[in-house]
Design brief:
By secondary structure, the protein is an alpha+beta fold. It is built from two helices and nine strands, in the order E-H-E-E-E-E-H-E-E-E-E. Helices cover 17% and strands 41% of the residues. The protein starts with a strand and ends in a 7-residue tail after the last strand.
């Protein structure tokens, strides 16, 4: 079985598209009037960006405590490169510099209320 997609609810679809395409390697497949977009990573995994306006709400969506999505990188250098690209973006809140955490190396940041983890894959590395 293979994961097909994840649906993330955001307030600003266009800024989410910018984040996932410019900094996380996703390609935009469809943008439906900035209310919903579909993005793909390496042709295998789809990310559906669902605008909160489609839920007939205008505020930032809430996610449960500790809910987050994570993206593995091959090594510490790749983690640091992503950190350096996004740390000064006005639409993200970075929780700290990349560091050793649990059995890996990485960092967390927020887009709106969504927590995102960037880390080295601990299952295929020396961690």
């Amino acid at each position: 079985m293979e994961l097909n997609h994840i649906n993330l609810v955001v307030k600003d679809v266009d800024i989410a598209i910018k984040l996932f395409s410019a900094h996380l390697g996703f390609e935009l497949i469809a943008n439906r009037d900035s209310k919903m977009a579909v993005m793909q990573n390496n042709g295998t995994f789809a990310l559906v960006i669902w605008g909160q306006v489609m839920n007939k709400e205008e505020n930032f969506p809430d996610y449960p405590a500790n809910f987050h999505i994570g993206f593995y990188q091959d090594n510490e250098t790749e983690v640091i490169q992503i950190y350096e690209k996004i740390r000064d973006e006005e639409y993200v809140r970075v929780k700290g510099k990349p560091k050793k955490m649990r059995k890996t190396f990485g960092f967390y940041f927020y887009f709106e209320n969504l927590m995102i983890e960037i880390s080295v894959n601990p299952f295929i590395s020396e961690y």
